[in-house]
Amino acid sequence: MKTTRLLPENREFRINTIYCIGKNYADHAKEMGGDVPKEPVIFLKPNSAVISNGDPIIIPAMSSNVHHEVELTVLIGTGGKNIPLATAMRHVAGYGVGLDMTMRDRQSEAKKAGNPWAVSKGFDTSAPLSPFVAASSVPDPHALEISLSVNGTVRQRSSTEHMIFRVDVLIAYLSSIFTLCEGDIIYTGTPEGVAQVVPGDVLEAVIPGVGSIRHSVQ
Ligand code: MG
After folding, report:
1. How remote is the CA of residue 113 from the centroid of ligand 1, in Å?
2. 31 C-alpha vs ligand 1 centroid, how far in Å?
């Protein structure tokens, strides 16, 4: 069972479903050679993919091109179905920072073949995740600096203001399809600058005011 914590109370949450949003920043959609989506692109990770701050990211033997994607993460505190846009933010317990590690070579093959992304996105250690800070301590989740450094060099730096589909829209959309539950997590998509990691790299993902995580690559 994977759990996470909501600060500052240190309340424990059992991690339920992990929803991830693809191509939610226009500049990243462009660098992937795709159009900006007209509705959110959704995929899932198993909760067995989650690792905590400091745990190593392990590159699977089946891939020779694993990429980092730094993302704002959302912890759902109160579930619901068909949640209206106007009240969607009330369902957020907290915010964190995560990495959506991706076997880019396997994902490209899957895209070409029309196959799912479960393997390329859901492998063990593919979901580094910080603890969450209470939503009440984040004045505006769409005005957060977000960055990812590799060995001390910044590779990704942007602002959550550039998200195409914002947190309330994502919650309303997801809950129109899936029943959202306490402990669900949403990875809200990555800005531009994704790139390969190799064994020995040290990754640091930071959202000031929200959290930071540091992981070595093996
Ligand atoms: Mg991603």
Report:
1. 20
2. 13
